[in-house]
Write a structure and sequence with these properties.
Layout (H helix, E strand, L loop, with lengths): L5 E6 L2 H12 L5 E9 L4 H14 L5 E4 L7 E5 L6 E5 L6 H15 L9 E9 L2 E9 L6 H18 L12 H9 L3 H11 L11 E2 L9 E8 L1 H13 L4 H16 L6 E8 L16 E8 L7 H17 L5 H7 L11 E6 L16 E8 L7 E8 L2 E9 L5 H23 L4 H6 L8 E2 L9 H5 L8 H14 L17 H15 L5 H6 L3 H8 L27 E2 L2 H9 L12 E9 L5 H14 L5 E3 L4 E4 L9 E4 L5 H17 L10 E9 L2 E9 L5 H15 L13 H11 L3 H13 L25 E3 L9 E4 L1
Length: about 800
């Protein structure tokens, strides 16, 4: 593959990142199969040609992935690929159904190599001269359920055109890349705030049964299906329409009730849901093949006293909020929740399907094959149980796919019977305002399933029972210490698998960054997956880890200096430039580099005492908020600072023009203020109280103590502290001073000296720096640009914040 073969390269969507991470660890996951039957005569050669044109039309079907030796994986689109197609003839087979099943299994087991496009193939099976089955095998990282209709519609449309001997003139589909770019513009701070509020108080994923040990252990997956008759489905549709409810809210309510029953009447259940959301503001995106989904947590409270209609209405409202903030990865949301990093965010995943069916009939073609059936064998997921409900006015189908290591046949059967019973009575329960408690009591005679969850979440336990689990070398001990800190446990057994500990993509990234920062060890994502325990990783990379503090390239260990925490330390190069620029010793000096922000908060009762308490806690948490700079160009962290008193300007009684002028005066003063570097604080916070439940926060902060990323972090931490979530913020073990000291040691190492020599040798050949263009008598003007908006339909604390 050369550069000329590549059409485009772009980042992964969050859902693709999660699937890539899981698939690298378990290649058998996320292999989708869609099967459909066709009645009538079929020309296999024309169908193969049509398949090739469909693959050419949709870039996602020509996409592969690159992740090795990269900080972030990317996806690439090839200009042309050979569309994999093969045919099997079972017209004379003794047992055609069994042989068809064997062909399906063979396609499934073949899997895909994610770095080699295309990640899709088509199998045409002739069952009889006028009956064919088509099995489309594709990796889930390329598609969602909506894509089935797109692909089948395009395939049959192209076949019909080629059959008539005409060109298939379909315009190119809108690029999935446009969606990825759209995602990049979403406000993740707003999303983090929503998820923290939504999941507040939830600490454990709900198990689909009583936790225990299965009597018999089996491998593979258990599958159960059931279909609801059309008459019952039509009655349900009518009952939902009468209450302005949706099929999605019903399906989520059914699973929430089933979980409440199976987990012994829990009144709060936490499970996962795969939701699709194609942005309405991207024209033509409905015809794009790609995964426009996310698997995110749903927190439901099926109180026995609640009625069916009110419970469904509440879930419907919650699902709207989840969809609005559904562009985050599962791992990100896990990190914002109170569920421990080493525990799963959810054990069960609900997949609600409600997709359009393609229209295969063209009245101009008498011999066009007709679409008979459309069946999907959903991809295997990393979760112990997936519940797939395809629901619409025409019918309801339920499929349970369980990992046999966690649930047995009896447990899966019990869960299916519970769902069927709840579904059968849902119409009458909605119509009659029946309570949830009445419906749950109807399940009392059903045996509860047993759920076995055997993943290790306590790395400390194993060494006490297995001497081989203790770390035996210095390399193992050093790596294990980092793992223990990242996973939040006291000790890590050397032989415990990263994934058994609850590892996911964010933890992997944090682990890799920590090993690089603390011991100078560069480990790739693929190395971590291939050697997923402390012992295996130590054996793989041990030679690259030197025994003394600096490694072979002179990278020092980043360690916390608790004893010298408040001792003076040097400025970094950028701090020194800012510090010198404040003085009049240089031309164009006397200028402070600082940031000025305004945050509008709406629909919230102001509590300024709580606001100041959160700000004080933020100052105690982050050392650089207590930094001062002396005349010799050294910085120092104050051990203690007084409580910060926020100045509040009460503008509620002013008319709109006077209120606007007052805000502008505050903005003009704070945005040009130069705070003395030798006195605390190097930030200023004031509030303009605009209306009873609306106020504006003015924040000025000197760039001597922060950068852009730090400001984002400070805002997030402040919101967490204001919401009373201090115990859930990550513990800070390294300070900026520790970083500066390590940076100073780096300059003495051979790696730095080689880099310095490299640039010294090349400096004479570099072009001269441009001279600044200066207008005479020109004042330095600071203008406020940009605006990010935080919104939530729930009106909760910190739900409506605008950052100016």
């Amino acid at each position: 593959m050369s550069k000329n073969d590549i059409e485009s390269i772009y980042p992964l969507a969050p859902v693709q990142q999660g699937m890539l991470f899981a698939a690298l660890a378990r290649p058998d996951l996320f292999i989708e199969q869609v099967e459909f039957g066709l009645a009538g005569a079929l020309d296999a050669a024309i169908l193969e040609a049509a398949w090739g044109q469909v693959v050419a039309r949709h870039p996602m079907l020509r996409t592969g992935f690159v992740w090795k030796d990269r900080n972030k994986p990317v996806q690439f689109v090839l200009r042309r690929v050979s569309a994999p197609f093969r045919m099997a003839n079972l017209t004379v087979a003794a047992e055609p159904d069994r042989e068809l099943e064997a062909l399906r299994d063979s396609e499934q087991r073949a899997g895909f190599k994610l770095g080699q496009a295309p990640l899709t193939r088509l199998l045409l099976v002739r069952m009889a001269p006028d009956h064919h089955r088509i099995v489309w095998t594709v990796h889930h990282i390329l598609i969602d359920g909506w894509c089935n209709s797109i692909l089948i519609g395009d395939l049959l449309s192209c076949y019909a055109a080629l059959k008539q001997g005409v060109s298939w003139n379909r315009p190119p589909a809108r690029l999935y890349r446009d969606y990825v770019q759209w995602l990049g513009k979403r406000d993740r701070i707003q999303a983090e705030q929503f998820w923290r509020r939504y999941l507040l108080g939830a600490t454990t994923a709900t198990a689909p049964g009583q936790t225990g040990r299965l009597q018999t252990m089996a491998g593979g997956h258990l599958v159960r299906t059931c279909e609801l008759d059309t008459a019952t489905a039509e009655r349900l549709a009518k009952a939902l329409r009468a209450r302005h409810l949706t099929w999605a809210s019903l399906c989520h309510a059914l699973w929430a009730l089933a979980l409440a029953w199976s987990s012994s009447q829990q009144q709060e259940v936490l499970f996962g849901s795969t939701l699709g959301a194609r942005p309405s503001d991207l024209a033509g995106i409905d015809g794009t093949i790609g995964p426009f989904i996310s698997s995110l947590p749903v927190l439901a409270r099926p109180l026995p006293t609640s009625s069916w209609p009110s419970f469904l209405a509440g879930l419907q409202s919650a699902l709207l909020g989840i969809r609005e903030h559904g562009f985050c990865t599962t791992a990100e949301v896990h990190g914002w929740s109170q569920v421990p990093a080493t525990a799963p965010l959810f054990h069960t995943l609900l997949v609600f399907e409600n997709y359009p069916m393609p229209d295969s009939e063209d009245p101009a073609l008498d011999d066009q094959p007709r679409l008979l059936t459309l069946d999907g064998d959903g991809a295997r997921t990393p979760y112990p149980l997936s519940v797939v409900i395809a629901a619409a006015d025409r019918g309801v189908r339920i499929k349970l796919v369980a990992d046999a290591a966690h649930l047995d046949d009896a447990g899966v059967d019990s869960l299916l019977r519970a769902l069927v019973l709840l579904l059968g009575q849902a119409a009458s329960a909605i119509e009659a305002d029946r309570s949830l408690g009445d419906s749950l009591s109807d399940l009392a005679s059903e045996p509860l399933p047993v759920f076995q969850w055997s993943a290790h979440t306590d790395g400390e336990a194993d060494p006490g029972f297995d001497p081989e689990a203790a770390c035996q070398t210095d390399v193992e001990r050093r790596i294990a210490a980092i793992w223990a800190r990242v996973f939040g446990v006291d000790r890590i057994a050397a032989n415990i698998d990263f994934f058994a500990l609850g590892g996911h993509s964010l933890l992997a990234t944090e682990l890799i960054d920590a090993m690089r920062a603390e011991v100078g060890l560069s480990v790739s994502l693929s190395e971590l997956f291939a050697h997923a325990s402390v012992r295996a990783l130590a054996a793989q990379v041990g030679e690259r880890l030197a025994s003394d503090v600096p490694d072979a390239e002179g990278t020092p260990t980043l360690a916390h200096d608790a004893a010298g925490r408040h001792e003076p330390f040097l400025l970094t190069d950028i701090q020194q430039a800012y510090w010198i620029g404040r003085s009049d010793a240089v031309s164009m000096g006397n200028v402070a580099t600082h940031s000025y922000l305004e945050l509008d908060v709406a629909d919230q009762d102001p509590d300024f005492d709580r606001f100041e308490a959160a700000l004080d806690a933020l100052v105690r948490r982050h050392d650089m908020l207590r930094a001062i700079f002396d005349a010799e160009g050294m910085q120092r962290i104050l051990a203690e600072t007084p409580s910060y008193e926020v100045k509040v300007h009460d503008l509620r009684l002013l008319n709109p023009q006077a209120r606007r002028l007052a805000v502008e005066r505050t903005r003009e003063r704070m945005s040009h203020e130069v705070l003395p570097a030798d006195r605390w604080p190097l930030f200023a916070v004031e509030v303009s109280w605009l209306a009873e439940r609306t106020f504006r926060i003015h924040l000025s902060i000197d760039m001597l103590i922060v950068d852009g990323g730090s400001q984002q972090l400070l805002i997030r931490d402040f919101i967490g502290l204001h919401l009373g979530q201090a115990e859930h913020l990550p513990k800070l073990r390294i300070t900026f001073r520790d970083y500066v000291l390590a940076l100073d040691k780096l300059r003495a190492g051979p790696g730095y000296q080689r880099a310095r020599q490299y640039w010294l040798e090349r400096a004479p050949s570099l072009p001269a720096a441009p001279w600044p263009s200066i207008r005479p008598a020109c004042r330095l003007l600071v203008s406020v640009v940009g605006r990010s908006t935080f919104r939530s339909r729930h009106g909760k604390r910190w739900a409506n914040v605008h950052v100016r």
